[in-house]
C-alpha cells in the first residue's frame, strides 16, 4: 500500500496533494526568469519573455529580445526590441501582447509576434514617466492602471476604446506604494493601495481610507495583495506574517492565517481547488510554496465559452481543428465554419512568398459563396499588409458594391471605385465617389474622368445645378456645350443678377453662346428679351408703375390698361406682334376696364382680323348683353347662330339656321328652346326639318 501513497503529501489536516509532470517545457532559456519581464496569458495561453531588460548592470549595447512561447514552451516568435525601455508586459483578453514603455507608449503585438498597432497613454504619463503598471480584465475589455513618476494613478477600463481617467491624489504618497491592485466593483474600476499601515481606495471622485474587517493588530505594513479572478475576494499579506482573506469590499473576513514568514512573497494569486467550490490563495517565496484555503465561491461561471475557445484555436492557426469542432458541435455556419474560413483567408493574404493571383484563386476556391464571409474584409487585410493588387483581385469576388467602393477609395483607386459604383446603379454611392474624386484630382483631370463616364457626368451635372453653378458652367465650357452654356447664362441673368445692366450682359453672353451652337431661334429670342428689358426700364422711368420682368403680352396689356394705346401699338409693331394676337390683347384689356366706348371705336378702326364673335363672348363674360348685341349683328354667317344664341335671341337664331338649312345649327337652336316661351320657335324648326325631308 505504501507504494501507492508514497508520492502524496499532506495539505492541512484533511487533504493530500501530489506533484507530477504533465509535460516538459520545450524552451531553451539561456537566462533565468528573474532577469526577464514575464507575462503569461490566462487559460493556458502564451507566455511572453523580454530578455535583457533595461538594467544598470547590463551592457548598453545588448539589445533586448522579445520571445513568445506557447504554454508548453514551444517557440512562437522572437524579435529584437528596437523601441524604448519597457516597464511591463501583459496580455489582453484577445491574446494581444501589450508592451508598455516607460514613456507611456504601448506597442501591441499578435500571438506570432506581428505588430498590430501602438497608442499613447497621454501627455501626463509622457512627462512624468511610468513607475508601475497593471493590466486587468473586466466585462468591458482589457484595462490598464498606471502609477506615474508624480505618484498619481491613471486608469482606463478598455484599451480598445481608450479613455484615460486621472484618479484622485493620495495624501502623503511620496514613493511607490508597498503594494496595490485594481478592483472592479459596481461596473467601475477602483485602485486599492497600501501606504505603510494604511489602505486607501481610489474611485472616480475621492480617495478614501479603508480598514479590513477583523484584521489582527500590530500591522505596520502591507507587503502583498491579490484579488480573485471574479474581483469578489481579496487577500492581504502583512509584515506580521498574517494572510488576511475576505471580500473585496473589505467588510467581511473569511479567514486569517499566520504563516510565520515575514519576508514579502514573490507572488500571491488566487486559484480554485479541483472539483470544489472553494477558492484558495497560493503564496510563493524563493524556495517555498504555500496554499491557504477556505473561501467558498457562491456562484460558479464559465470562464471559456465555445467562441473564445475557437478564437484561441484560430489565433494559433489551428484552422482544421477549429472547423472540426464547429462541425461536431453543429454550430451555425456564420458563427462557426464561415468565421474560421474568414480568419484563414486573412492569414493567407500575409503569405508574401505566394503570388497575388495564386492567393486570390486559393481563397476563392476555398470560400466560394460561403455565407457570412466578407471578401471586402479579407481585401482590407491584404491592403493592410501592403498587397494592394491582391486586395483589388479579392474585391472582384465581393458581390456587394457598397462594400467594394469604400475600400477602393481608401486604396486611392478612385476611378475603379467610380466604375464599380456606376455598375451598382446606386446613385448615392456614385455621388460619394464623385465628391471623393473632386477632392482628390485637379479640376482638369476630374472633368476628363467625368467625360468618360456619361452616367456619372449626368449625375454630377444634376448636383451642380443645385449646389455649384460655377462648376456647372466650367463643365459646359470643358465640353464646348454652347447650347447648355446659353441656357446657363439665361438662368443666371434672372437668378444672380439684380441690376438691369448685369442681366442684359448675361443675356448677351447667352445669345453669343446660342449663335455658336447654331441655334439662331434661341439667339434671336434672347436678343428680343434684351430689347424688352431695356424698353421696360424706360417705360418705368417715363410712366411709373411696374413693367420690368413682364412678358411681352403682359407689357402690351399693362400699357392698354394704363390708357397708353399708342405706346402699346408701337410696342406691337417693334416686336412684330401679329394683328390677331394684338386684337385679342386689346379686346381683353378694354373689356376688363369696361371701357365700352373705346372698345366700340377699336372694333370700327378696321376690319377685325379675329372676327366679331370674340367681342360678343367678351361682352357676355362681363355680363353686358347690351354691348354684346352691337357686335352680334356684325358676326359672319358661319358664327351668326352661335352669336345670337349668346345674346339670347333664340327666334332670330332659328331663322338664320333655317335659312342656312344647317342640321347642326338647327339642333343647336332647338337645344336652347325652353318651355312655352320658345314653343313656337321649336315648332317652326320642326316644320322646316319636315319640309327639308320631303325635298
TrEMBL record:
Q: Which Pfam families match?
A: Vps16_C, Vps16_N
Domain Vps16 C-terminal: start-end pairs: 373-691
Q: Which InterPro entries match?
A: VPS16, Vps16_C, Vps16_C_sf, Vps16_N
Q: Where found?
A: Late endosome membrane; Lysosome membrane
- Record-level GO cellular component terms: early endosome; HOPS complex; late endosome membrane; lysosomal membrane
Q: Which residues form the Vps16 N-terminal domain?
A: 4-302
Molecular function (GO) terms listed? Answer: actin binding
Q: Which biological process annotations from GO are given for this protein?
A: endosomal transport; intracellular protein transport; vacuole fusion, non-autophagic
Q: Which residues form a coiled coil?
A: none
**How is the protein disposed in the membrane?**
Peripheral membrane protein
Which proteins does it associate with, and in what oligomeric form? Core component of at least two putative endosomal tethering complexes, the homotypic fusion and vacuole protein sorting (HOPS) complex and the class C core vacuole/endosome tethering (CORVET) complex. Their common core is composed of the class C Vps proteins VPS11, VPS16, VPS18 and VPS33A, which in HOPS further associates with VPS39 and VPS41 and in CORVET with VPS8 and TGFBRAP1. Interacts with RAB5C. Interacts with STX17, MON1B. Associates with adapter protein complex 3 (AP-3) and clathrin:AP-3 complexes.
- Homology family: Belongs to the VPS16 family.
Q: What is this protein called?
A: Vacuolar protein sorting-associated protein 16 homolog
Q: Which organism is it from?
A: Suricata suricatta (Meerkat)
Amino acid at each position: 500500500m505504501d507504494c501507492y501513497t508514497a508520492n502524496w503529501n499532506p495539505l492541512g489536516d484533511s487533504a493530500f496533494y501530489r506533484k507530477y509532470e504533465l509535460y516538459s517545457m520545450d524552451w531553451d532559456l539561456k537566462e533565468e526568469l528573474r532577469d526577464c519581464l514575464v507575462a503569461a496569458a490566462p487559460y493556458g495561453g502564451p507566455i511572453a519573455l523580454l530578455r535583457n531588460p533595461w538594467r544598470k548592470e547590463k551592457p548598453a549595447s545588448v539589445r533586448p529580445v522579445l520571445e513568445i512561447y506557447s504554454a508548453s514552451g514551444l517557440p512562437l516568435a522572437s524579435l529584437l526590441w528596437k523601441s524604448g525601455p519597457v516597464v511591463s508586459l501583459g496580455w489582453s483578453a484577445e491574446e494581444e501582447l501589450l508592451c508598455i514603455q516607460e514613456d507611456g507608449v504601448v506597442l501591441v503585438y499578435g500571438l506570432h509576434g506581428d505588430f498590430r498597432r501602438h497608442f499613447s497613454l497621454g501627455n501626463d504619463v509622457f512627462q512624468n514617466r511610468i513607475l508601475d503598471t497593471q493590466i486587468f480584465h473586466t466585462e468591458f475589455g482589457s484595462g490598464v492602471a498606471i502609477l506615474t513618476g508624480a505618484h498619481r494613478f491613471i486608469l482606463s477600463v478598455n484599451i480598445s476604446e481608450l479613455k484615460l481617467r486621472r484618479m484622485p491624489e493620495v495624501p502623503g504618497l511620496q514613493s511607490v506604494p508597498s503594494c496595490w491592485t485594481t478592483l472592479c466593483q459596481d461596473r467601475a474600476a477602483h485602485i486599492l493601495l497600501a501606504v505603510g499601515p494604511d489602505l486607501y481606495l481610489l474611485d472616480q471622485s475621492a480617495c478614501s481610507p479603508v480598514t479590513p474587517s477583523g484584521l489582527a493588530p500590530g500591522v505596520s505594513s502591507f507587503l502583498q495583495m491579490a484579488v480573485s479572478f471574479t474581483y469578489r475576494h481579496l487577500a492581504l499579506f502583512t509584515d506580521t506574517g498574517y494572510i488576511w482573506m475576505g471580500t473585496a469590499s473589505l467588510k467581511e473576513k473569511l479567514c486569517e492565517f499566520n504563516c510565520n514568514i515575514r519576508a514579502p512573497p514573490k507572488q500571491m494569486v488566487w486559484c480554485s481547488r479541483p472539483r470544489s467550490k472553494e477558492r484558495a490563495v497560493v503564496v510563493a517565496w524563493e524556495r517555498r510554496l504555500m496554499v491557504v484555503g477556505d473561501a467558498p465561491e457562491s456562484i460558479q461561471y464559465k470562464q471559456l465559452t465555445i467562441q473564445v475557445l475557437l478564437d484561441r484555436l484560430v489565433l494559433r492557426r489551428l484552422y482544421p481543428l477549429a472547423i472540426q469542432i464547429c462541425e461536431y458541435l453543429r454550430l451555425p455556419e456564420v458563427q462557426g465554419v464561415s468565421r474560421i474560413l474568414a480568419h484563414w483567408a486573412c492569414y493567407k493574404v500575409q503569405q508574401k512568398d505566394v503570388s497575388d493571383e495564386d492567393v486570390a484563386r486559393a481563397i476563392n476556391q476555398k470560400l466560394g459563396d460561403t455565407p457570412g464571409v466578407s471578401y471586402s474584409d479579407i481585401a482590407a487585410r491584404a491592403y493592410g499588409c501592403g498587397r494592394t493588387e491582391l486586395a483589388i483581385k479579392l474585391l472582384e469576388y465581393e458581390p456587394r458594391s457598397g462594400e467594394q467602393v469604400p475600400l477602393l477609395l481608401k486604396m486611392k483607386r478612385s476611378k475603379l471605385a467610380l466604375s464599380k459604383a456606376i455598375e451598382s446603379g446606386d446613385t448615392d454611392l456614385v455621388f460619394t465617389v464623385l465628391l471623393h474624386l473632386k477632392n482628390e484630382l485637379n479640376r482638369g483631370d476630374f472633368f476628363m474622368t467625368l467625360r468618360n463616364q456619361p452616367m456619372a457626368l449626368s449625375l454630377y451635372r444634376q448636383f451642380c445645378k443645385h449646389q455649384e453653378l460655377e462648376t456647372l458652367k466650367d463643365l459646359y465650357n470643358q465640353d464646348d456645350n454652347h447650347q447648355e452654356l446659353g441656357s446657363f447664362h439665361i438662368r443666371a441673368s434672372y437668378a444672380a443678377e439684380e441690376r438691369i445692366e448685369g442681366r442684359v450682359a448675361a443675356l448677351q453672353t447667352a445669345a453669343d453662346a446660342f449663335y455658336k451652337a447654331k441655334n439662331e431661334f434661341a439667339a434671336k429670342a434672347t436678343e428680343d428679351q434684351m430689347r424688352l428689358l431695356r424698353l421696360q426700364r424706360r417705360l418705368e422711368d417715363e410712366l411709373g408703375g411696374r413693367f420690368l420682368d413682364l412678358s411681352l403680352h403682359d407689357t402690351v396689356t399693362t400699357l392698354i390698361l394704363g390708357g397708353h394705346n399708342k405706346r402699346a401699338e408701337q410696342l406691337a409693331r417693334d416686336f412684330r406682334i401679329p394683328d390677331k394676337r394684338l386684337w385679342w390683347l386689346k379686346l381683353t384689356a378694354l373689356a376688363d376696364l369696361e371701357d365700352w366706348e373705346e372698345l366700340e371705336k377699336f372694333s370700327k378702326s378696321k376690319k377685325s382680323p379675329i372676327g366679331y364673335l370674340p367681342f360678343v363672348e367678351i361682352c357676355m363674360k362681363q355680363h353686358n348683353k347690351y354691348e354684346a348685341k352691337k357686335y352680334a349683328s356684325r358676326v359672319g354667317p358661319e358664327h351668326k347662330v352661335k352669336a345670337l344664341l349668346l345674346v339670347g335671341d333664340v327666334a332670330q337664331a332659328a331663322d338664320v339656321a333655317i335659312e342656312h338649312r344647317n342640321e347642326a345649327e338647327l339642333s343647336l337652336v332647338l337645344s336652347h328652346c325652353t318651355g312655352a316661351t320658345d314653343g313656337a320657335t321649336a315648332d317652326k324648326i320642326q316644320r322646316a326639318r319636315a319640309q327639308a325631308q320631303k325635298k
